């Protein structure tokens, strides 16, 4: 068997059924997607989104199906403009590749140097008329990242370890 045929057989001929309140939907063919929970799923997904970084021309960090763009600039106004543009480019790339950007799960965080802490470091980023949620801390792969210091991560982990 040719390798591409093996992959095709893995992805084709699948069906789905949805259960809601004990009622089953009709069986529908699956024409796209990767089997959830499969061994090859993460690798195939990473291959699928591998060129997303070309769409935004910025650093992208990936973990599972989560992607995080990293953008920097000395000017807050320019940072907001650049980030909005990059996110628009990512959204277009996702649409072209039959994926979508979940705005409800999309967050922004701003890191600034100590001399700039006295000024507002909160950024305002709009995408399709919606303002993204700006956070002072986020959690990525179990690491809590705060906008100004690591104390949040240390405090949470000390409490977690003390529990055991």
Automatic annotation (TrEMBL):
Protein name: Reverse transcriptase domain-containing protein
Origin: domain of life: Eukaryota
A Pfam family matched in the record: RVT_1
SUPFAM superfamilies: DNA/RNA polymerases
PROSITE patterns per record: RT_POL
Record-annotated Reverse transcriptase domain positions: 1-132
